[in-house]
Amino acid sequence: MKKTRQSNIELLRILAMVMVMVLHANFETLGYPRPHKVEAEPMMWAGMMLTEELCICCVDVFVLITGWFGVHFRWRNFLRLCFLTLFVSQAMNLAVWAAKGAAPGDWFQLLRASWQYWFIASYLLLYLFTPALNAFVEQQGAKGLQRFLVGFYLFVVPFSYALSDLQRGFSAICFMGLYLLGRYLRLHLAPRLERVPRSRFLWLYFGLSVGMALAYWAHIYFRNPWLPQLPNVVTSYSNPLTILAAACLLLYFSRLQLQKGWVNWLAAGSLAVYLTHQQIFVRPEFFKLLREVDKALPSPLYPLGAAAVLAVVYVASAALGHLAQRCFDLLAAFGEKNLSKQKLRNLLCKVSFSK
Fold it and tell me: How many domains does the chain have?
């Protein structure tokens, strides 16, 4: 029996993917802050930095949701995600090909587009390890899991800025820590925080984001020489304040009462949004389009123009994601039907030979 999606958490999943898109429409499109730029337009860059910090917890939120629900490993679901990635990436190859009138690369480059997603690779590794992670959660209990998470982050946080394996949180190892944290929040911490008003989680999220944005802005504006790694810290997924902000959002949305079909539909196609606009041949065109919107509109109106573009991209991508999932289900059903027929033939052959 298919489980009913919880629209309150699915709404957070949508928000997390919108945050991903906003991040890509912010610094990656318009450029990263430099002292001379911030000094020339301090208020504009303060707004951009605040936007960055409000959204930087997006990936942490997405993985925490996986841990919140917990997942049971199924090869079918693993293959579904692989098929979704292949389907969407190749659909984007065809779209770029049609738009430009020529292939965006040779056959190997077109094929390589299917595995040029850092998030998908890390998420698949996380999914492969979920049986072991779930068993660990059951074995440890609340105190044991709490001690492990403290030790894990005492090691991971500082070394994520020194070791390439951890990559400032852009890695499967960090995803596994977030998965365990999500399980801890759901099973042990959330019940103890039931009496805390949910609005406090939202205010803490905003407070953390504003604090990091102010620190970032001041560091650039005053050319602070004492903390050269500050920009890397406040824009990383392994920043403990970023992780705390993501946890606050999850705890806030877990208290909402909501059940909407359209929310579930948009959330179910959310991963396809990442796969479309960050495909290696679409990515530069996506940035180019947003830069053209920025040039065509006065600066105060750019957020509105960018929001319109992101909304269209999201809905179209979600629809493509649902199409990919439908195709996978049809192929899986066809494969299972033929496999069962083959088993029946083998059984009949064995019976005839035995006679």
Answer: 1
Domain hosting 49: range is: 7-354
Residue-level pLDDT at 28: 87
Contact present, 65 and 13 (Cβ < 8 Å) = yes
The verdict on residue 177 lying in a domain is: yes
Rounded to whole angstroms, the Cα distance separating 235 from 230 reads 9
Q: Which residues of 190-225 are buried (b: 16+ CB within 10 A; e: fewer)?
A: beeeeeeeeeebbebbeebbeebbebbbebbbeeee
Q: Rounded to whole angstroms, what are the CA distances from 324 to 18, 87, 266, 319?
A: 21, 6, 14, 9
Mean pLDDT, residues 121-138 = 95
Whether the CA torsion 26, 271, 172, 256 is positive or negative: it is: positive
Residue 1 lies inside a defined structural domain of this protein: no
**What mean pLDDT is predicted for residues 67-82?**
94
Residue 82: inside a domain, yes or no?
A: yes
Per-position b or e across 265-278, b if 16+ CB within 10 A of its CB: ebbbbbbbbbbbbb
pLDDT digits (tens, 9 = 90+) for 329-352: 999 888 777 766 656 566 556 544
pLDDT in tens, 79-117: 999 999 999 999 999 999 999 888 888 888 888 888 889
**Percent of the chain scored above 90 by pLDDT?**
79
Please count the CA atoms within 13 angstroms of the CA of 161 that sit on its side-chain side: 17
Domain membership of residue 155 (yes or no) is yes
